Amino acid sequence: MDDGRDGWRKRALVPVLVFLGLVVSVVSSLGAPLVPTIAARDHVSPASAQWSLTITLLVGAVATPTMGRLGDGPWRRAVVLCGSALVLVGSVLAALPLGFGWLVVGRGLQGVGLGLTPLAIATARDSLSEERSRSAVALLSITTVAGVGLGYPLTGVITEAFGVSAGFWFAALIAAVAFTAAALVLPPTPVRARRPLDAPGALLLGVALAGLLLVLSQGETWGWGSPRLLLLGAAAVLLLAGWVRHELRTAHPLVDLRLVRHRTVLTANVTGLVAGVGMYLLIALVTRFVQTPKAAGYGFGASVVVTGLVLLPFSVASVLTGKVLPLLARRLSAAAVLPLGCLVCLASLLGFAGLRGQQWEVLVVMAVAGLGVGCTFAVMPGLIVGAVPAAETGSAISFNQVLRYVGYSTGSALSAAVLQAHTAPGAVLPSDSGYTTAALIGGAVSLLAAVVAVVLPRRAATPPTTPVAAGAAPAPAGRTVAK
Predict the structure, then answer these.
(1) Does residue 102 carry a pLDDT above 90?
(2) Could you tell me if 272 and 382 are in contact, meaning their C-beta atoms sit under 8 angstroms apart?
(3) More confident residue, 29 or 277
(4) Per mean pLDDT, which of 241-250, 422-431, 436-445 is the most reliable?
(5) How far apart are CA 468 and CA 226, in angstroms?
(6) Which end of the chain has the smaller Cβ count within 10 Å, N or C?
(7) What is the separation, in whole angstroms, between the first and last Cα of the chain?
(8) % of the chain surpassing 70 pLDDT
């Protein structure tokens, strides 16, 4: 029988893991509403101030797969604590009045935290009972998107009342709480064989992803047809091809691509990439639309605070969906829930395309989007967890997370490109029809995600195991599922 101390730690593990995921998501989203204010305060151009957001995603894309692989070995607890500590240090650097350069450095260190959620999912798989792991894995998966809807209003309220630095001091406070809680509650890492880190693979993937995300984030600023953007994009694609070749040949790959080719894992990864495009396209459209002055003939002229509150239904609905998902999946199966979530996202984008004249309509649209995202993203980690060996959980989930980041960046860039195409020469604001066109494109992307989830059905090569996020138990720790 566990003593009282161990019992307390086990009961606190799920809340601490979820809090850690929310903290990382909130901290990473802090930069978006603050870009104009940072540009004015630090006397830099808006394009330069955008780096306070871009650098976080770039560092996260590089750090996530490496942390995932390290977390699959005997160092998971240490990796989580070190990552949390770097988020805390980055928050303090961003908060201190040291100048724009140190702000960017701090935001980069905060980006390391994006690699913590896959490790939290791996910890839940190894440490929780079958019953508790069902909802925990699903809930952890949607913290990455739910935190956006929480981070925006918090940023707006704190910044409006106390200034830009106060927002980052708030990030430092919650990061310190998360680090302390993790240090007290995280269990020891399961005993596993040490594996050498694939440093060349980590370098190749990191540089390739950084180049790809830089193309997506800077395309509007540099120009989508600019030579340096095209050259950077071509180099990123070549590096990705080289990384795939390297991973298939090395004895200890950073990401086991043979597992990625497993039909279940492939379904989750491709759907996550495509669905991420549609989800973030809608968020980018909504945040820009509601802040547009009414003089433009559309929009609500909302403040940063009100804009954040518009996203709140998205977060609430996604979290609630994650909690009831096990019940839904028992009736429909995970294979049915995944395309269903994509279709609900499609409905939200179609709703925004036709119904956005009143604020309450946009609130309903975001709530529907939250339902769709909750269904879609909550089920993915369970599909992956049920299809890979326990020793590959962190790496496999991390790769899925990176693909989501690429999808998010693509959706944001796509929304900006479509709106720019609907902006008349010399005009500052796009036409209202631009939002309709962008929403319809996002709807087509969500429909594609649903088709992918159906065309690449879950098909096990061995007698089927039960997926976690679908409301069933994970494969026993250490069990190897056939590739």
Answers:
(1) yes
(2) no
(3) 277
(4) 436-445
(5) 46
(6) N
(7) 38
(8) 88
Per residue, the 3-state secondary structure of the chain, as one string, reads CCCHHHHHHHHHHHHHHHHHHHHHHHHHHCHHHHHHHHHHHHCCCHHHHCHHHHHHHHHHHHHHHHHHHHHCCCCHHHHHHHHHHHHHHHHHHHHCCCCHHHHHHHHHHHHHHHHHHHHHHHHHHHHCCHHHHHHHHHHHHHHHHHHHHHHHHHHHHHHHHHCHHHHHHHHHHHHHHHHHHHHHHCCCCCCCCCCCCCHHHHHHHHHHHHHHHHHHHHHHHHCCCCHHHHHHHHHHHHHHHHHHHHHHHCCCCCCCHHHHCCHHHHHHHHHHHHHHHHHHHHHHHHHHHHHCCHHHCCCCCCCHHHHHHHHHHHHHHHHHHHHHHHHHHHHHCHHHHHHHHHHHHHHHHHHHHHCCCCHHHHHHHHHHHHHHHHHHHHHHHHHHHCCCCHHHHHHHHHHHHHHHHHHHHHHHHHHHHHHHHCCCCCCCCCCHHHHHHHHHHHHHHHHHHHHHHHHCCCCCCCCCCCCCCCCCCCCCCCCCCCC
Q: Which two tokens stand for residue 57?
A: 């995603």
- Topology (CATH level 3) of domain 1-187: Growth Hormone; Chain: A; (1.20.1250)
Cβ contact 399:273 at 8 Å: no
Alpha carbon 15 to its chain centroid, in Å, reads 19
**Amino acid identity for residue 367 in this structure:** A
Q: Kindly report, as residue ranges, where domains of CATH 1.20.1250.20 are found in the chain.
A: 1-187, 256-472
User: Exposed, middle or buried by CB within 10 Å (0-12, 13-18, 19+), for 228?
Assistant: exposed
CATH topology of domain 256-472: Growth Hormone; Chain: A; (1.20.1250)
Residue 18, phi-psi category: left (phi > 0), alpha (psi -120 to 50), beta (remainder)? alpha
Phi, psi dihedrals of residue 292, rounded to the nearest 5°: -65, 130
Owner of token pair 């630095």: 165
pTM of the shown model: 0.80
Euclidean distance between CA atoms 316 and 143, whole angstroms: 11
